[in-house]
């Protein structure tokens, strides 16, 4: 296959994954008894699968002409005899030696459906016409596009045979498959192929208009007849069917999600390196030049700080936020301080590169909205306008969500927990708290799918916007109304903040030691607390440490109290040895997790415990040395996290 069209084999593989996912959901087996499809639709299913088989078997060798198949004079694909089929076979094999189609290519995709596929191949091998070995004789892009379009349409139609519950399971399984695909592909060229394949799949997908009818069964069978007739028509109809395509369905959304994840990981993998070329930037849709994606510095003179800066702990420059205006818009800023160089007072050029790279990634997320991060506009270096002196900090500028008053300030989860303890706010319902837990788990799953580590996950960095709440009033206790006040916050729409020290798991150039802080160490795994995280060891931060931090946050959410109060720790007097024992206390002191179990149920208890335990809870035989930088190991961890955390929370009804 020509290099410029290799993305098309990714499309073919993705359609195979879709079919295997569908087969797993409905319980495909050799006997109909296990099939989760209504009896009235089994005939339709048989016809659709039969058409699919015929199209695949005839592709490149036969063509539909005058209502019957005729062999092509110049076939695209030829069947190779086995190596053991005599001298002729050995000679052909010796000359051409077409190995199994790119073994490395197979490892780039999930193996979860391999069991079902193996059973299918074993059954198919019993047929005399089963082709042993195939190779390309020539390549025809248009004909291959037509094949892909038909296969995609077949898969789309099969989805319509599912009931609501099965469709929900299929969507979740497809999403998990996409995450695994992204996890298993680290090379930039492979990620570009996935992006191009997903974009092409979106444009090729064909669905049909639904006619109004009171009988769903009649509708399905009508569509089946139309669908099968269309599938059997000449390939010349391919172009004319474009008007019927639906770009708003779940299949299109799925293709776009995979494209955005591949695009983001490609940028993340190459940002700040020579691998991010103009050609690659263009192929990923960033613009004609690298400059289009890396130009993220703003003019400091366009930014005006409004009011006083917020400082949660009264002493931490790192966590200070400020309200500001930028180009006649109300925005908010997170500060990132730096140590000036002794000889000129300027920031280290490497620090500048890191900030610019991180902001470029945050801006890309703003375009695709994958990771529940607020919309990032860029960064600036803070310099006193009167004296010209540098304040030794960068400001990362974020735009407020749409539909929110320009004067509304972000309020974080820690402020809500403290306000509830002070009797100012009501404790949210268990339903709202579980919903928040689910959204946070899903956001972390997406981050880790592209190897992006947060490194600062804590309640202070989980933000909400509500026009009725001012964080300054919460801290001062100057909130109007009769206490405790009922919260009107939508807990399904949090934003993750504090990305300034996050980095791709493989890119150590974007790593910087986190600030030493007792309050922050409460959420950090013991292996990266305090000085341990700054002794040349920061690059070893693992996904398991983010998952542990999520576990601590989930304990806070279920108690609806700050973790230091749950553990009765006085942060002003706490010693490092006290903080090091936090994980052990959470797991070993039965009263803590017993409280979670008694007040939220077995499922939430199991989820929290799994997060605190780490890889051992997700992957059989894993321990503290589990290497999640290895793509295969990372994919296993991703699967385990999905099964034991994300899916459990999704299925939970409170």
Automatic annotation (TrEMBL):
A single GO molecular function term of this UniProt record: protein kinase activity
InterPro entries named in the record: HeLo_dom (IPR029498), HeLo_sf (IPR038305), Kinase-like_dom_sf (IPR011009), Prot_kinase_dom (IPR000719)
Protein name: Protein kinase domain-containing protein
PROSITE patterns named in the record: PROTEIN_KINASE_DOM
Origin superkingdom: Eukaryota
Region described as Disordered: spans on this chain: 233-252
Pfam family membership, one: HeLo
Domain Protein kinase: 278-654
UniProt xrefs under SUPFAM superfamilies: Protein kinase-like (PK-like)
